[in-house]
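question for whoever is on the cluster today: can someone run the full assembly for these? two chains, 537 residues total. i dont have access anymore since they changed the login thing
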Amino acid sequence: MRVYTSHTGKEFYVSSHFRNIPRLGANDAANVFGTGVASGVVKYRIAIILTAVFVVSGALVQGSRGLHTIGALAEMDLNTAFIASLAAALTVNILTVLAIPVSTSQAIVGAICAVGIRGSGVQVSVLIKVLASWVISPIAAAFISYALYRILGSLLEGRISNVRVWSIFMRIGFYCVGIYGAYALGANNVANTTGVFLSAGMLTPAAAALLGGVSIGLGVLTYSKKVMYTVGKRITRMSEFAALVAVLGQDITVHIFSWVGVPVSTSQAIVGAVIGVGYVKSSREINFDIVGKIFLGWIFTPTASFFISYFALLLFSRFF
Amino acid sequence: MGFFIHKKEKHIVELIKRHVDTVVETVYTVTEALGLLLEGKKDESVEYTKKVHKKEHEADIIQREIDMEMFGGAFMPSIRENLFITVDIVDKVANRAEKLGDFITLISPDVPAEIVKDVRKMGELTCKCAEKMRDAVYSLFDSMEAVHEDTIEIERYETRIDKVAWKILDTIFKKLDIEKFSHRMMLREMIIHLSSISNKIEDASDRIDIIALRLKS
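^ ran it for u. tokens below:
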């Protein structure tokens, strides 16, 4: 397989790749401020600016671990890195059109695995760590949200003296949780955007974090409106306090996994968190259709991106 | 931006308190008009009902101002919606008082001495019920803990009012020797108008309870 190392080749790959990334950012950022925006507490314009700023901060400060994990999954060159990222983007778009729950983190890992299998192999220990994190993340989010709801609920019991105090508390809460969520998102998911190029040796960790963070930020600024309202409205069917706790639970989970160094799905984390909050009221609140969809996502997304990437690599090796 | 919303919310709270005060004044005024009717001072009673109209109109103006201010983005959306509905129901209490006032103006029925005491009692209880509604609305913005106690009190007053109303109706239809059936029906209508005020107050208290529960969930 030929490796393009010329300046023009790099520019072509990077520009093509970064055209795909913004949609990724839009999807994930919807989980962060969606609830606040859909409930009318946070203005959309302020939400996207805050998200963009704190996503970049998170990526720069804590994004390197995830980048290294993705980079360590398989050896890549510029061509295979580009094909993997293109396959992941295609998977996200196709599965979204087919209304199958999709995770960009899982799409990129599936695509990299195809590169590894066609190339010098996949780092099994890293892959096991990643797979375990996918399974654990929604479960962890459920437990964290459950505990948060119980703890915060009892801490606030009797302390919210009237409607105005409650309103102010919720308003501040939505801003703080949104900012923290954007930071955690940047720290965790930046690996999905530029991890492959770090592996290909094209970018330094700092450059990968900066470019990845900026591209997610751009996605938030340009594509996120519709997704943010849709996701937000789905979550705000709960009470505002429950929604706030669920989003906080998701943020903490995503942040924990950025320490672990594995990009996880924010969409699956928020579903887990909503289940955790719902369980406080009653186990009947759990929607098992949604749980089933998470399982579908675990199977469909990496499998689809694996095969798309595999066949793209096959075609590439035939013709070039 | 937060500061402006904080200021706006404070202004709305003042308006909501002023609105419920005006509604309670409307209820007081109509029961005073009813008291005059019971004393046989029909002309003075009719004159008093004009004050009821004035108070009800004042409440309407404040309600419109609240609506306009509230949809400018104050309070959390779920609370905003429930507050809007609550204010609307509280305003309907004034409308019911106005209807009773209209009835007094247009019909001014002769009230038999046998039921005067109970009708007066009903009026007093309705005023106390309205006062509790005011307390409950105030508690929403001052001390949430008191809301539930206030709404329970409203329910108690409403039950007592219903019992007295039933006793009066029983007297009108079974015990009193009233010559014309239309007279009985007019007295019945007056009692129904009066008891509809506390029924609306109870509706408002249910909404206030929902807001308090919403903050706890």
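summary bc i know u wont read the tokens: Confidence is low (pLDDT under 50) at residues 1-9 of chain A. Residues 163-199 of chain A form the longest helix (37 residues).
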